[in-house]
User: Fold this.
Amino acid sequence: MATLTYVFTLFIFLFINKITTTNSQPFLNSVEQDSVYRVLDSLNSAIPWRSLFPDDLCSSAPHGVVCGYTTLPTQSDPGTVNILELSFGYVSDHNPNPPCDPNSTFDPLILSSFPYLRKLFFYNCFSHQPVSLQPFFELGSGLEELVFIQNPSLFGSLSESITNLTNLKRLVITGTNVSGEIPDGFGLLNNLEEVTLSGNKLAGSLPENVSKLKKLKILDLSRNGFEGNIPAGIGELKSLIKLDLSLNFFSGGFPASMKGLKCLELLDLSYNKFSNCGIPLVFEEMRELKGLFLSGNELGGVIPDIWGKLRGVNGIGFSGLGLVGDIPSSIGVFLSNLSYLALDNNKLTGSVPLEFERLKMLSELNLKNNSLSGRLPFSAKFVSRIGRKLGVQGNPELCLDKRVFGSFSKINSDLGHLKVCKRVEVPKYALPHVSSSSRSIGYQVSSLLVMFVWFYFI
Assistant:
């Protein structure tokens, strides 16, 4: 079906280009013209590329084949055009790159015919026939983007020859059979802005010279076999926006230098081997943080009260950390954008903060399997909004007020496992400190205010 849609799109594209193309545009040279046909035939021989696109490919080409001026035109010279981008693998009707045949074979050496190539993209092209990664590192210093997404038969390693790509800005290799370690020479690619190497078979440690990648904005090494400590040099990546090391075997603690990641918005270190280091206060220095995910590491300790400095956070994943103590009420006070909060499978005690009721954006709250106690302090409106995404099972001393929740246990089976509170309990807000001379009167007034607010909301 994708092939039929693509062919139809090609005819429309061809018709429009026939109307808009002028004679003044320079032609693509015959070597590159023929090489494009060879690449297309190699990736999908079922489509008659030469018949569909018989003319100059810089005037009329399939989506994903992009030309550009390498010598600008003048009054006496029409200039020179060459192939600048090649993107293969049908993504969608909005991005209809030439579709790849899963059984196709591909020789990367064909690409050596494109001396000005800047971007190379393959999506789900190499599924059965093995294709080596190594030849792609010989494409020359002009390449700026090298992207492989979901190509399980791509194999090889990140050898030192990758340093040939001195102008590389974006390296994406996900869902492949690529293995080995990150070479020491990787730090020489100082133009890199994105390194996404998730879902491969890479291993070894993260080299210290990663600190040389000063322009790096995205570092994603998730779903591999990396191990060892996070190098202290990670804190020198001042431009980093995303750091995802999840689902590896990293261990040790979190280096204090991480406070240098002032621009970081997403930090995902979940499901590694970090242990007995607690949740460090250094995270509060990351003022732009929106997502903080540490689940699946036996960190221990308490939840630090750092949320007044991290008001933009919208996702917290603290599942299975071995956390103890109370849940800070400041999470509900300051994190008005919070939509996801996972505190399940810990050793948390105390009551559920009433301030969570203020989290109007919250769509999932998981408190399962802790030692929380007391009355579940949520209104019927709050429970109705979150629905099945409210997890409270596994807290034997937690109870609910049947007057408030009524039939909601039918909507959320977790609520059906909670016992009914024997008496109505007045939730306890954290009261401000008062002097001994005014404590008696202040306490009475504060208590009345708390009771008024509570009965108003329920």
Summary: Residues 2-20 form the longest helix (19 residues). Residues 393 and 414 are 5 Å apart (CA to CA).
